[in-house]
Amino acid sequence: MKSRVAVTGLGLVTPIGAGREAAWEGLLAGRCGFAPVESFDTRAFSVHLGAEVRGFDPAPWVRRQDPAALGRASLLAIAAARQALEDAGLAPEAVAPERAGVAMGTTSGEPREVERFDDRYLAGELDRVGPEFIGLYPCHMIAAHVARELGFAGVNTMIPTACAAGNYAIAHAVDVLRAGRADVMLAGGADAFSRITYTGFARLGAIAPERCQPFDRHRKGMIPGEGAAVLVLEPLDRARARGARIYAELAGYGLSCDAHHMTAAHPEGNGAARAMERALADAGAAPGEVSYISAHGTGTPTNDRLETLAVKRVFGAAARRTPMSSIKSMIGHTMGAASAIEAAVCALAVALDRIPPTMNLEEPEEDLDFVPNAARDHRVLLAMNNAYAFGGNNASVILRKHEA
Amino acid sequence: MPITSHPSDRRRVVITGAGCLSCLADSSAGLHAALCAGRSGLKPIELFPTESIGCHQAGEIRPFDAQSYLPDRNLRPIDRTSRLLLVAAGQALVGSGWTAEAVVEREVGLVLGTTFCSVRTIAEFDRRALQLGPSHASPLDFANSVINAAAGQTAIWYGLRGLNSTISAGAASGLAAFGYAVDQIRGGRAAALLAGGVEELCFESFFGHYQAGRLCGSRGGKEADDGELPIPFDARRNGFALAEGAALVTLEDAAAAAERGAPVLGEVLGHGSGFDPLGTEESAVGAVARAVRLALEDAGLGAGDVDALSAGANGSVDGDPWEAKGVAAALGARAADLPVTAIKSMLGEALGASGALQVVALLGTFGDGVLPGIPGLERTDEGFPLPGARPAAQRVEVRRALATALSADGHAWAVVLGAAGQS
Amino acid sequence: MSTNAEEIRTRVKQIIANVAGLNASRIDDDARLRDDLKLDSLSLLEIGVDVDLAFKLELPDERYKEIDSLPAMVDLVQQRLGERTEQPAAVRG
Question: Do B168 and A160 touch (CB under 8 A)?
Answer without folding.
Answer: yes
